[in-house]
Specification:
By secondary structure, this protein is mainly α. It is built from 8 helices and 2 strands.
Length: 153
């Protein structure tokens, strides 16, 4: 059973919307005709990258304050939302059903050093999965576009 609702009517090669219609992204590269989703290896590869990224965050004492008081169901839901968001933003067939980034991170007071560690762990996982440089840059840009809505709010 998949953790993310898949909408098979979505054309992964078309512009995708996320964030309640705020963002548009064409993730298809002219050279290959493939979406970032396809170049990353699809749903399973994105889920594996997210799973290892989240494992790194949970193991880092800097991020201990984010896991306290969360049950297994809440933890799984957060993972599901992140996989779905990255899948949709990268041009995949998923539909992100979570809240916008500003609302979902309000009050967390995420610091610049926590943000930097988040990006560092993301890059480490992309390297581990042998993602090419261009796709790595595009994937981390998916995070970067929301920095103002996440850091310090």
């Amino acid at each position: 059973m998949r953790d993310v609702a898949l909408d098979r009517s979505v054309d992964p090669g078309k512009d995708q919307q996320i964030g309640k219609g705020r963002d548009r992204m064409d993730s298809t590269t002219p050279e290959t005709g493939k979406t970032l989703y396809e170049r990353l290896g699809g749903y399973d590869a994105i889920a594996a990258i997210v799973d290892e990224f989240l494992r790194r965050l949970r193991a880092d004492p800097m991020f201990a304050r984010f896991g306290g008081g969360r049950g297994l169901d809440s933890t799984r839901r957060g993972r599901e939302l992140l996989v779905g968001q990255m899948c949709e933003l990268s041009g995949g067939p998923c539909v992100y059903i979570g809240r916008d980034m500003k609302t979902s991170h309000a009050g967390l007071q995420i610091t610049e050093s926590e943000w930097d560690a988040n990006i560092r762990y993301t890059l480490q996982e992309l390297d581990k999965h042998k993602i090419p440089e261009q796709a790595k840059a595009e994937f981390t840009a998916l995070f970067e576009r929301y920095k103002a809505d996440i850091v310090g709010v």
